Amino acid sequence: MTILEQIKNLKENSKKRNFNQTYDLIINLKDLDLKKAENKIDEIIILPKKLNKEKKITIFTDSIKKSEDFNIISSSKIESISKNKKEISELISKSDFFFAEPKLMPIVGKFLGKYLAPRGLMPKPLVGPLESYKKYKNAVKIKVDKQPVIHTVVGSQDMRDEDVEKNIEFLINTLKVKLPKGKNNIKEILLKFTMSKPIKLEVK
After folding, report:
1. Minimal CA–CA distance to 142: which of 170, 184, 115?
2. Domains of the chain
3. What is the C-alpha end-to-end distance of the chain, expressed in Å?
């Protein structure tokens, strides 16, 4: 069966829910020594087809004062945020990805690192025009650190099946490049809705 056929099969055999469920992709890995730093993965992947829910992005910068597309935080606010648990909680809840001007990275690390690092949210360097970061609104993060498994969202029920298929194929092909043994490091790939049992995807 093709991925598209398996997506349709999942839809036909899953209980209908009264909300827009997401497609969750679970990738179990094998033969991967995670004690070696080079085998760990921490990547942001920009999917080719638009997700129903855009990701929220916070940028630490002194060069940009405000933006309609991003949550902007200046260096003068970083320390005060770190002293307010409510502000920290709000910042984390409304941010999927963080970016920072290189010169502000040490300040972010000093005051917010202990809150962001455990959640895998430490900012990536902000390099290039701000406009180019809009693409990250359609990105997902894949991380392989302590356990050889990846769990990420690749779409939602209201998307076209063909678009979900393209996102799945793109993510799997990208992962194959990142893994030391490519597809040989992939044990199995499962696809499920938010509230459904998973099906095993047959992927070439």
Report:
1. 170
2. 3-40+145-200 (3.30.190.20), 57-136 (3.40.50.790)
3. 10
Q: What is the residue type of 45?
A: I
**CA angle, residues 24, 25, 26, in degrees to nearest 5:** 120
Nearest to 47 by CA among 67, 69, 25: 25
Q: How far apart are CA 140 and CA 154, in angstroms?
A: 8
Alpha-carbon distance of 41 to 34, in angstroms, equals 9
Q: What is the rounded distance in angstroms from the CA atom of residue 123 to the CA atom of residue 20?
A: 30
Q: What is the pLDDT of residues 84-137, one digit of tens each?
A: 999 999 999 999 999 999 999 999 999 999 999 999 899 999 998 999 999 999
Cβ contacts of 35 within 8 Å, gap of 6 or more: none
- The residues, any chain, with a CB within 8 Å of residue 203's CB and separated by 6 or more, are 3, 172, 189
**Angstrom distance (rounded) from CA 159 to CA 88:** 33
Asked whether residue 203 carries a pLDDT value surpassing 80, the answer given is no
In 116-158, beta strands by DSSP E = 124-125, 139-144, 149-156
187: how many CB neighbours lie within 10 A of its CB? 13
DSSP one-letter code for 203 = -
pTM of the model: 0.87
